[in-house]
Amino acid sequence: MTSTTCIRDAACIVAWDAANHRHAYLMGGDVVFSGDTLSFVGRHYDGAADTTIDGSNLMVMPGLVNLHSHPSTEPFFRGVREEHGVPSMYMSGLYERSVAMQPDPEARKAGKQVAFCEMLLSGITSVADLSGIDEGWIDLAAQSGLRVFLAPSYASSRWYLENGWALKYRWDEPAGRRGLDAALALIDQAASHPCGRLAGIVSPAQIDTCTTDLLRDSFAAAEARDLPLTVHCAQSVNEFQVMIDRHGKSPVQFARDLGILSPRTVLGHALFIDDHSWIRWHTHSDLAALVDTGTNVAHCPSPFARYGHTLEDFGRYRRAGVNLGIGTDVAPHNVIEEMRLAAILARVAARDITTTSVGTLFHAATVGGAEALGRNDIGRLEAGAKADLVLVDLGNPWMRPARDPIRSLVFTGADRAVRTVFVHGTKVMENGRVLTMDHAAALEAVTEGQQRMLRDAPSRDWAGRTAEEISPLSLPIFGRNEASSLRQ
Ligand SMILES: [Zn+2]
Questions:
Q1: Which residues surround ligand 1, an ion (CB under 5 A)?
Q2: Averaged over 135-139, what is the pLDDT?
Q3: Which residue has the higher pLDDT, 343 or 484?
């Protein structure tokens, strides 16, 4: 017998209005799920329930979909990457950092756990996990309680640097081939896992690190298995210049002409498109290429905003007809805060408050991400959808007055107001405590792993610098007299 849970008399339900393809506030009602599936979302449920939850001070909303993240590595960069960038690489610190600082395999498992915990604590129920293949990944994803879309990433080359400005590539085409084969084997294994929460994404790592053949074959494999495909594309000015140098085309035009743009394709991050103000290329066709091909964009504002970059702009992409989802990319793995930043940056970039709204961002962070992953049964609360839901405490001081609960959540409350999370009908987080993983132990292991990563930086960095030289602390150490390299 499957067990039935009823959230009774919820003050507010973010219910799916199928006729209008949008979320709407249902002020007062019941939400019921049996096993892993929602069976009722409406005013009043007359049936029996095994468990009843008093919803009188709660908002019930669909779980958030994190469309782009790197859980194995990003937790190690807390305190390292937030203010790290390379001005001579158009501010991006991606290349310098990813070469000089790499968490070891021993630590990466704990990194995943810490990232997954952050996600559950902030109301994320589904995640696209773009990572290299580490032993035990499937077991860990199953244990986490999250709905995990495993995206094993591979490439035909690796970045390296010989100086502080020119991006170089070390090619190993057979490694890319082996990576694709291993990724498909892992995806097949994940999809058949008995927990029923795992799926796969074909993930050639970056548009500039994969050969044309590998990208084409990756797309063919995604089509043959009816899977989504994700690739980093238009994520830096350096990458744009490399693609012009190689092909005379923008990264998006190259992808379009190769035939890998489609409704199953998710581009992280499609930010530096041809008409972006940092690019100013002579063509203005990238946005139309995304629209015409039905290509999805994983928008992750935080990592770029820290460098001084922003999408131009979220509202313009939406109005053109691009489906966008929200991703965290970096730590913190908090989609609520990404929604806030996305809304603000869109308005700053457009110099227009009307360019987008929090309602539109919430749609992107739920339905937008779900549809990009080819799913119409997550990111929405309606009978028949998966029981992935979040209970938000409307009595939390940061939520009050809760006149407009989504605005309160996005602009103020965030994870502080997330009380309970269910995924696939199972309670996985309550009152700030993750029920599926040992968060404290994982944090210990990440702290130790970060120390090893920082210690090893001089042997990896092109100039042999220490981690402290690459990424100085935000304040000097008391009693030491050296100058900080951060500008005052
Ligand atoms: Zn990424």
A1: 268, 329
A2: 97
A3: 343
